[in-house]
Amino acid sequence: MSKALFLIPLLATLAQPVAALTLDLPAKVLGEETRSANPASYALPVAAFNGINVPSQQVEGALDQRAFRLDAAEMTTLAILAPLRDQVRAAGYEIVFECEARACGGFDFRFNTDVLPEPDMHVDLGDFRFLSAQKGAEAVSILVSRSAGAAYVQITRITDAPLPATPVETPVNLNVETTPTGTEATVPASAVAADLDAKGSAVLDDLVFASGAATLTAGDYPSLAAVAAWLDANPEGTIALVGHTDASGSLAANVALSERRAEAVAEVLVDRYGADRARVDAEGVGFLAPRATNQTEEGRQKNRRVEVIVTSTR
């Protein structure tokens, strides 16, 4: 067996180290990929896909997420998950949710859940298992799947950790109301409007989606304010919001995810910024129109986007 040691690296100023969670993986590790962040938030799934989203609980702290490729092509997903589940319970965690492929919600669950991209983590949409567990303020989730030649295990852990101290270099008087000045505050809006007028399209680069989900996170989006302003200035104009993904997963699943994201942006554009829904279409093309390579994480991030396209000025 191989051991997976989860020790969240924190600032040296912490008085007490975070206790490690050691799991015995049921087969030889052929490859490993890691992502960590502090502070971070994680949407811990607590139920299957309900037709709209995956019900989840937001947990915050230090994030450690690891994907393992195992020499276990002949093992079933249950045979891989079961001993890990037992170890998590033995470590004092309470299982809050567990499901198997179709019962989880299939590709809808997969693409509304935080998963490291291919090839680091492979998920067979017809053969995967998932569980989530909590112990106090800590949470852990395990996703297991297989390919023809290997098994894959993703373990995500959030540990309770204080926020790192952030030095303040410039004092700000919060009692004085100020209005942003200079070009920096107006660049996002003016760039979107200029691109719509000059090229007929613009990338909405400031949109932030919940990880693996099709809903926008809370916040202000200058690019959407700019699109609404452009529609006001061009009363005969119509637009299409087009969602794009990276190349992780199947085309059908990515087209569905990209369309749901475009629909979510359309809802915010209408509900928060007052656009006329009759003049806004929402479409998704998945990974069929990349603007960067899908071979690097930087390229995949660029490909995950929503664009606005002018469809008519009548």
Walkthrough of the structure:
It is a single chain. A hairpin with a 2-residue loop joins strand 6 (128-135) and strand 7 (138-146). The chain has seven helices and twelve strands. 37% of the residues are buried. 24% of the residues lie in helices and 31% in strands. The protein folds into two domains: 2-10 and 17-159, Protein Transport Mog1p, Chain A (3-Layer(aba) Sandwich); 187-312, 2-Layer Sandwich (60s Ribosomal Protein L30, Chain: A), CATH 3.30.1330. The chain has helices spanning 77-90, 101-104, 106-110, 187-198, 222-233, 251-271, 297-303; strands spanning 2-6, 21-25, 29-45, 56-70, 94-100, 128-135, 138-146, 151-159, 201-203, 238-244, 280-284, 305-312. It has a six-stranded antiparallel β-sheet. A four-stranded mixed β-sheet has the order 9-12-10-11. A two-stranded antiparallel ribbon has the order 1-2. It is elongated, with a radius of gyration of 22 Å. It has 314 residues and is α+β, with helices and mostly antiparallel strands.
Instruction: Give a short account of the largest sheet.
Output: 6 strands, antiparallel
Give the tally of structural domains: 2
How many H/I helices? 7
Provide the residue-averaged pLDDT.
83
Query: Low-confidence spans: pLDDT under 50, at least 5 residues?
Result: 5-18, 175-187
Radius of gyration using CA atoms only:
22 Å
Apparent shape: elongated
Q: H/E series, N to C? A: EEEEHEHHEEEHEHEHEHE
Helix content: 10-25%
CATH architecture of the largest domain: 3-Layer(aba) Sandwich
Distance between the termini: 67 Å
Which structural class should the secondary elements be placed in? Answer: alpha+beta
CATH structural fold name of the largest domain: Protein Transport Mog1p, Chain A
CATH class of the largest domain: Alpha Beta
Q: How much beta, percentage-wise?
A: 25-35%
What's the total count of β strands?
12
